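Q: Here's a chain of 89 amino acids. Please give me its 3D structure as tokens.
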Amino acid sequence: MRYLVDTGVLLRLVHPADPQHTDVVNALDLLKTRGDTFYCGMQNVAEFWNVTTRPVTARGGFGLTAQEAQRRLDIIELAIEVLTDSPAS
């Protein structure tokens, strides 16, 4: 089965302090062992970037540097394919 992964899942995946981090990791691991595949859209990547690079003092931001946010996004992209916008859309 194919799954479109929400930004909230992406954020919890890279934020070990989140109370739902372990649940997200376990769920994705279980689905992956079944042969399921994961996708996210460019909108999800943009939202991920905005939250992870937003200052900690501003609406739930992670306060990461651009380099650290990119490193975490690179790790996500090893397991979750980013669907790019096509010219027809």
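Q: Can you summarize the key feature?
A: Residues 4 and 39 are 5 Å apart (CA to CA).
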